[in-house]
C-alpha cells in the first residue's frame, strides 16, 4: 500500500524578510488595482507612501477608499478603523473597505469588509437594480 504524501506546508520565516513582506503587499495591491480596472475604475492606481501621515488608503482613483491586507493575522476592527480614518483624509466619508488576501487563494477568494451602513447601501442598490420582480 502506497503512502500518500502530505501537501507541503507554507514556508514561515522565523524573522520575516522585509523585502518579501513588502513585495507580498505590493503584489496584492496590484491585484486589487486590476479588480478596480475590471469594475470600470480605469484611474485606479496604488497610492504607495505618497500621502505620509494623511494616508488616503492603498488604492487611489476609485470612488471609495480601499485598504489592502495580505496578512497572516486578520485584525478586522483595527484595519477597518484605519480604513475609516483614511477615508476621512480621502474625502469618501464612510465609503471604504478592507480587502483581505486569503493565503494561497486567488483574487476571487478575497474577503471584502465594508462598514455596516455602507454595506447596507450597497446591498440595497444591488437588489433594487438586479431584482427580477
From TrEMBL:
Name of this protein: Holliday junction resolvase
Amino acid at each position: 500500500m502506497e503512502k500518500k504524501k502530505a501537501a507541503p506546508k507554507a514556508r514561515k520565516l522565523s524573522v520575516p524578510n522585509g523585502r518579501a513582506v513588502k513585495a507580498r503587499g505590493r503584489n496584492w495591491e496590484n491585484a486589487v488595482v486590476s479588480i478596480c480596472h475590471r469594475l470600470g475604475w480605469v484611474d485606479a492606481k496604488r497610492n504607495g507612501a505618497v500621502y505620509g501621515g494623511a494616508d488616503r488608503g492603498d488604492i487611489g482613483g476609485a470612488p471609495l477608499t480601499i485598504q489592502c491586507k495580505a496578512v497572516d493575522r486578520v485584525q478586522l476592527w483595527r484595519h477597518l478603523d484605519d480604513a475609516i480614518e483614511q477615508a476621512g483624509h480621502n474625502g469618501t466619508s464612510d465609503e471604504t473597505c478592507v480587502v483581505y488576501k486569503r493565503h494561497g487563494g486567488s483574487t476571487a477568494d478575497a474577503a471584502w469588509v465594508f462598514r455596516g451602513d455602507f454595506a447596507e447601501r450597497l446591498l440595497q442598490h444591488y437588489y433594487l437594480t438586479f431584482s427580477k420582480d
